[in-house]
Amino acid sequence: MKAIRIHSYGDLDALNYEEAPMPETGATDVRIRVHAAAVNPVDWKIRAGYLASMVPHQMPLTLGWDVSGVVEQIGSEVSHLAVGDAVYSRPDITRNGSYAEYVVVRASEVATKPATLTHNQAAAVPLAGLTAWQALFDHAQLKAGERVLIHAGAGGVGSFAIQFAKSAGAHVIATASAGNEALVRGLGADEFVDYRSQRFEDVLSKVDVVLDTIGGDTQERSIQLLNAGGRLFSVVGPPNADALAAVGASGGGLMVQPSSENLTAIAQLIDAGKVKVLIDSVFPLSETRAAHEKSQTGRAKGKIVLEVVPN
Fold this sequence. Notes:
Strands 3, 5, 6, 7, 8, 15 and 16 form a 7-stranded mixed sheet that branches. Strands 11-10-9-12-13-14 form a 6-stranded parallel sheet, with helices on both faces. The chain has a 3-stranded antiparallel sheet with strand order 2-1-4, with no helix packed on it. The protein has 10 helices and 16 strands. The protein is an alpha/beta fold. The radius of gyration is 19 Å and the shape is globular. It has 2 domains: about 1-125 and about 275-305, Alpha-Beta Complex (Quinone Oxidoreductase, Chain A, domain 1), CATH 3.90.180; about 130-255, Rossmann fold.
């Protein structure tokens, strides 16, 4: 099968479009015929070796941990999925990924694909969608009526977070550049802050929850905006515990986990018309280098997708 693999950590030149062995299916696995995968920042961070001490991998490594496709083989202990099922998943990041014609995934990490989405659209959901879902609901325990500040609202995680928070009955505030105001308001943001021309802490009143996708100075300033009892969770690094305690708030860092249960809940919202998927661009698998190059700019509006089988 064709796959994008790296044989050592490195820059864009480390990406190889090549023949790779067909992955073997264990008793609790399913083998998926990949129709589409998505590109996430974690992909090129792993490629570059930035996460080598946290997530050790054996080489050669197939990148990519978002997938939508069709079940082609099931393990002997799998009973809730069948050959021919259209599915999507965020696989275990320690295993070989989905930049390939086939990927093997634990059945517990797989959910039925949203019926209203193409495979390209569905592949854009799992990692970013699960990150937003777990940050807001599993970690921050967001409740109806609370005020939530979502940074980088036009990005992959932010765009899902706005919609999930709105569907849960929260008052949603999003930061982005001025050119993305219509986009994030269209997703459901009640308030908008242009981060380039405004300091959000100067124009907003206190909030109950912050989803931080930026870190650094933005994270530090966000802490000062929290109500007593507020929560800040970050996907880029844990916040300062002393600073949180000083304002009577709590929080931490998070790393997304595979969850078929969460993906099923997200699919229900999508199929009910309550969540839209933003696609920035689509590349064929053979042009993964260009997709990584675009992702590294940090300027994608929505998700970058690799199409393996034409939709």
